[in-house]
Specification:
The protein contains ten helices and two strands, in the order H-H-E-H-H-H-H-H-H-H-H-E. It has about 260 residues and is mainly alpha-helical. It has one domain. Bound molecules: fe (iii) ion (FE) (2 copies). One fe (iii) ion (FE) binds next to loops. The site of one fe (iii) ion (FE) has 4 residues, from loops.
Length: about 260
């Protein structure tokens, strides 16, 4: 397989798909502080489903992420391509497992959430929307723009408060963090929670809200990102031979049934 070059990815300027732009338009108009708080309250009890990791992965087979200009292959393929790239680099088991499961929060779509509330880059709500956020112009219609409490760099937060105290736009990152946080090492939970926070991990925004723990943990988020991004390939992946290895990896680290 020819290795794709980094510049070929996240090519939003040349993407022919309106599905990407329209997903971001709805996202930027709809992600308000109230919306996020309501979704967190709604999903926090984890009473939607009881499923193991494999059943969740299989349910996502065929789901196409409308915010992603790079791939139209299935989520199972993306999960295994990410994990395989990590395994090939000799990353530790817990980190490879993180790669395998990182997008399982897209289960939200199967619970009826529209894609704009599931996928795409994430960002804090309750404060200024940083210029570094993709399709920034669509925030013009976000109702929070009219709320003076949220109209500054810190908004409702204290400078240096740490991201744990910050409400992120609602989507598959925060949701899967809720589902898995009691089972995985701290760095794995952190990577899952912030892997779509491109404005921070790739563009360097929002450092004023971070604390020392965030700065430490973002090393893992940055280490993870290339595997998520550059492992995408249209080449078919032979899934069957990989299953025994990954079944064992999941069994070794996670309970057979998870609350969703
Ligand atoms: Fe993701
Ligand atoms: Fe991903």
């Amino acid at each position: 397989m020819t290795t794709p070059q980094p510049s070929q990815f996240r090519d939003h300027a040349n993407t022919p798909f309106d599905r990407v732009r329209d997903t971001y338009r709805l996202n930027h108009e709809g992600q308000t502080l109230d919306f996020v708080l309501a979704k967190k309250r709604d999903y926090a009890p984890l009473k939607r489903a009881r499923l193991g990791v494999w059943d969740a992965l299989l349910k996502l087979e065929g789901f196409i992420d409308n915010s992603d200009p790079d791939t139209e292959s299935s989520q199972v393929t993306h999960a295994l391509q990410t994990a395989e790239a990590m395994r090939a680099d000799g990353q530790p088991d817990w980190f490879v497992l993180t790669g395998l499961v990182h997008d399982l929060g897209k289960m939200l779509c199967l619970f009826g959430e529209p894609q704009w509330a599931v996928v795409g880059d994430t960002f804090p709500v309750g404060c200024d929307f940083a210029e570094e956020i993709i399709y920034h112009e669509y925030f013009a219609n976000n109702p929070d723009r009219k709320d003076p409490r949220m109209g500054s760099q810190n908004g409702i937060y204290e400078s240096g408060c740490g991201l744990d105290a910050v409400h992120m736009s609602w989507g598959h990152d925060e949701y899967l963090y809720m589902v898995l946080k009691n089972y995985l090492p701290e760095a794995a939970s952190y990577v899952i929670r912030y892997h779509s926070f491109y404005p921070a991990h790739t563009n360097g925004a929002y450092t004023h809200l971070m604390n020392d723990r965030d700065r430490q943990m973002f090393e893992w988020v940055r280490k993870f990102n290339p595997y998520d991004l550059y492992s995408k390939s249209p080449d078919p992946l032979k899934i069957e031979p990989l299953l025994p290895h990954y079944r064992k990896l999941v069994d070794d680290h996670l309970p057979p049934i998870l609350d969703w």
